[in-house]
Write a structure and sequence with these properties.
The protein contains 3 helices and 2 strands; from the N terminus they run αβααβ. A two-stranded antiparallel ribbon has the order 1-2.
């Protein structure tokens, strides 16, 4: 239950990107939307540093780690 709440919180924070950092988009041919969402959630969870997991208003996402995770799963960064 706590993990699901954290995952939803991380997704919400990721959706609030500022104009300085454009939203990341990935594509992978013939990948169902549900699978892409599972991969995104897994990569988001793995891209939040353990030190940032304290109860707080802000969690810092390591964008480079997130991009690497998605690319490792076969996704291409969309421009």
């Amino acid at each position: 239950m706590i993990r699901m709440g954290l995952a939803l919180f991380v997704l919400a924070i990721a959706g609030c990107a500022t104009s300085e950092q454009p939203r990341l988009g990935f594509e992978k041919p013939r990948t169902p939307e549900a699978q892409m969402q599972r991969d995104q959630r897994a990569c988001l969870r793995s891209s939040v540093a353990a030190d940032d997991m304290v109860v707080s208003n802000v969690l810092k996402l390591d964008r480079e780690a997130y991009i690497r995770c998605m690319q490792t799963r076969g996704y291409t960064l969309r421009t």
